Amino acid sequence: MQWFLDFPISPLPNKISYQSKILSMGSCFADVIGGKMQNLKFDTLVNPFGTIFHPLILGDLLDHAIFQDELDQEGILERDGLFFHYGVHSDLKGKSKEDLSQKYSSQIQQTKEYLEKGSHLILTFGTSWIYELPEYGRVANCHKQAQKLFDKRLASLQEMQNHLTHVFGNISRAFPQLKIILTVSPVRHIKDGISENQLSKSLLRVLCGNLEKQFDFVSYFPAYEIMMDELRDYRFYKSDLIHPTQEAENYIWKKWKKAIFDAETEQKVSEIAKIQLELAHRPLNPESDSHRKFQQNLLAKLERLDGEFDFSKEIESLKD
User: Fold this and answer.
1) CA distance to 81, 136, 201, 208, per residue, from 96 (Å)
2) Domains in the chain, ordered, with CATH?
3) What is the pTM of this model?
4) CB count in 10 Å sphere of residue 262
5) What is the Cα Rg of the chain in Å?
């Protein structure tokens, strides 16, 4: 009896290589994929505005980056001596309104650079449920404010599609070289309710399908489907029963590598992954001859690769 059913994933048309410049934005899965690529020395900017779950908010931030909009002062709030903004995650905060505005402006500029000079934009949608503040509008994060202040609703498919159609149109005109990869986050938003989460994810999946048909520079990677179908067991969730375990993330990553990297890039990825394991090695006796020889061999590998990849910090740490 077969206890495991996998499904074929067609290779994505626009491959990522070590010549690519990548912007990864969205929910926690954008952090996972983007973080793994960063660790493997891909030129990747990950969630410059923090974790963003909703397609409408992602569209807003991309448009702000394209047009270099300043921070809307109406969305600023203060909590515990720090300043936050309803349009971004709490990771982006300041000691004053001016400090927050400067940090936001820096992230806007960096995001514009990755759109302008980049090859790939990865967007991970987390939920269709959105919170709105009557006097401000839709928010990316409630920043631990009282829930009674906000209205919660399920964004319609048409509303999300219209907004991203507008944003993707701006992107195609301003940055015609940029390819977009869409994913639906495998993280379950069960605080909304089990049925409500499934409804939300279904809307996101249809949204991705419609955008993929609409734009020839848009493709889709089925991270959500891998989690729901191939890894359909609570063993693959952390104790909160919401987030995938590291094993599940690594499994999806393997599928990602096969779909988005060519053979040459996969070979380099494997080589750098082995080096990262060697860098993480903790010797039994750091003063032993065997460990000194191990370090010398590792240093030689890093120096050989440093012309192509930035291993300057690792080389410096081995020489200390």
Assistant:
1) 8, 20, 37, 38
2) 21-261 (3.40.50.1110)
3) 0.93
4) 11
5) 21
